[in-house]
């Protein structure tokens, strides 16, 4: 067909490292920061809100994600 497939853009080592860190969460269960748990909770809220059309869940999830991103930006600028 020619041209690059979208999979060429993936770096297998980076993906493996990301997966490794993700599965490492199970081992370092108590070391994960509370903000990370809020972020996972927010994603679950949004997904559940999309499955059962429940707008308040989606808004709460997006609100938490917004706060999390703000927190990340602030922490990057001034750790």
Explained architecture:
- This protein has a domain at 38-79.
- It has helices at residues 12-27, 34-51, 55-77.
- It is globular.
- By secondary structure, the chain is mainly alpha-helical.
- The longest helix is centred in the C-terminal third of the chain and has 23 residues, at 55-77.
List keywords for this structure.
0% strand; 79 residues; globular; 3 helices
Nearest-integer average pLDDT: 69
**Can you summarize the main beta sheet?**
none
Number of helices: 3
Number of strands: 0
Series of H and E elements: HHH
**Ends apart, CA distance between termini:** 48 Å
Query: What structural category do the secondary elements indicate?
Result: mainly alpha
Q: Which band does the percent of strand residues land in?
A: under 5%
What is the overall shape? Answer: globular
The low-confidence parts are 1-8
Radius of gyration, taken over Cα atoms and rounded to an integer in Å: 17 Å
Helix content: over 70%
Task: Please write out the topology.
Elements: H1 12-27, H2 34-51, H3 55-77
């Amino acid at each position: 067909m020619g041209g690059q497939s979208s999979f060429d853009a993936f770096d297998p080592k980076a993906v493996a490292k990301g997966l490794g860190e993700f599965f490492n969460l199970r081992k370092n269960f108590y070391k994960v920061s509370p903000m990370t748990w809020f972020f996972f909770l927010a994603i679950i809220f949004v997904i559940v809100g999309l499955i059962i059309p429940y707008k308040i869940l989606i808004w709460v999830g997006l609100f938490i994600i917004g706060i999390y991103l703000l927190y990340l930006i602030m922490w990057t600028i001034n750790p």
